[in-house]
Amino acid sequence: LELDLPAGLACDFALHVEGTGDNRIMREFTDKDGTVVRLLSAGKGFDLTFTNLSTSETVELPSNGSVMRETINADGTSTVENTGHNVLILFPTDVPAGPSTTLYVGRLVYTVDTVGVFTLQSTSGPTTDICALLTY
Predict the structure, then answer these.
(1) How far is CA 134 from CA 2, 13, 79, 98, in A?
(2) What's the burial of 43, exposed, middle or buried (CB within 10 Å: 0-12/13-18/19+)?
(3) Dihedral pair phi/psi, residue 133, rounded to 5°
(4) Do 66 and 85 meet the contact criterion of CB atoms below 8 Å apart?
(5) DSSP state of 94
(6) pLDDT digits (tens, 9 = 90+) for 13-44
(7) Which of 27, 50, 91, 133 has CB 3.0 to 4.6 Å from 40, enough for a Cys bridge?
(8) CA nearest to 81, candidates 22, 29, 41, 127
(9) What is the mean pLDDT of the chain?
């Protein structure tokens, strides 16, 4: 996994994200017609490295485990519940508007509409602002 995100999208600066060592089990659940209605992903996940492309400052996060449950709604939207250690990147088009890149440890619930807009519904547990860590 490698992503280069321009300034203003995930942080105020250009951000490089690299993930290695994916250790997840993924399952799809279908209804009686064979339509996928739920996804489950669980395991240690990725070791993540975030790099501020302006300063070369980096933050490394080891894979600590997470579970993602995604319900695909009849209208094409989805509801996602994450538990464990999860990073959520919100863009300026999301709700609340980014740019933000945040590590959540605990529970995180968000919806995704049919055009890919994320709307944060609820969180519990500590958070870490990855962008702030990369600006020192």
Answers:
(1) 18, 9, 30, 16
(2) middle
(3) -65, -30
(4) yes
(5) S
(6) 999 999 999 889 999 999 999 999 999 999 99
(7) 27
(8) 41
(9) 96
Q: Which of 59, 51, 128, 38 is nearest to 87 (CA)?
A: 128
3-class SS at 114? coil
Residue 136's pLDDT band (cuts 50, 70, 90): confident
Distance from the Cα of residue 44 to its chain's centroid: 14
Token pair 């600006």: residue? 135
CB 108 within 8 A of CB 123: yes
Q: What's the CA gap between 4 and 61, in Å, rounded?
A: 17
The model carries a pTM of 0.94
Residue with tokens 């993924």: 26
Q: Quick one: tokens of 40?
A: 């489950």
User: What whole-number percentage of the chain has pLDDT above 70?
Assistant: 100
Q: Are 123 and 104 in contact (CB under 8 A)?
A: yes
Query: Within its chain, how far is the Cα of 120 from the centroid?
Result: 11
- What distance in Å separates the CA atoms of residue 78 and residue 61, rounded to the nearest whole number? 27
Amino acid identity of residue 82, one-letter, is N
CA distance 49 to 18: 5
